[in-house]
Design brief:
The protein is globular, with a radius of gyration of 16 Å. The chain is α+β, with helices and mostly antiparallel strands and about 120 residues long. Strands 1-3-4-5-2 form a five-stranded mixed sheet. The protein is about 20% helix and about 30% strand.
Length: about 120
């Protein structure tokens, strides 16, 4: 093994999390419109830091296709969060065509309830 290869830092691959949001109420609870570009909350017991990249394999409602996207951790609910909110992370949707299309689609689905004031997993 060469010295250069031994001293090169290992490239950290993003964690992979599958997120399946079966109904509108699950989508509402997970969606984070307060993040620039939107975001999704997912339960996780893993240790994550702000800025960590996560590959999300998203399926929601009755959509036949899964949407893969890489986002960064922008919100953390630690264990024992107030309001009985679940432990996990909020992933900011990427500023890509896929991320923008997903945000538009989610907000279209949730338009009737976006201002309801019902609690979500984050606020």
């Amino acid at each position: 093994m060469s010295t250069a290869a031994a001293s090169a830092p290992a490239v950290k691959r993003p964690d992979v999390i599958a997120l399946n949001l079966k109904g509108k109420s699950a989508l509402y609870a997970a969606y984070m419109p307060l993040l620039k570009g939107g975001g999704l909350f997912m339960e996780s017991k893993r240790l994550h830091r702000l800025g960590d990249e996560i590959l999300v394999i998203l399926s929601f409602l009755d959509e036949p296709t899964k949407v893969p996207l890489v986002g960064s951790v922008a919100w953390i609910n630690p264990d024992h969060t107030t309001g009985n909110r679940p432990q996990g992370v909020g992933i900011q949707l990427p500023d890509t065509e896929t991320g923008r299309e997903l945000k538009k689609k989610i907000e279209g689905i949730l338009a009737p309830v976006m201002q309801s004031g019902r609690p979500t997993h984050t606020v």
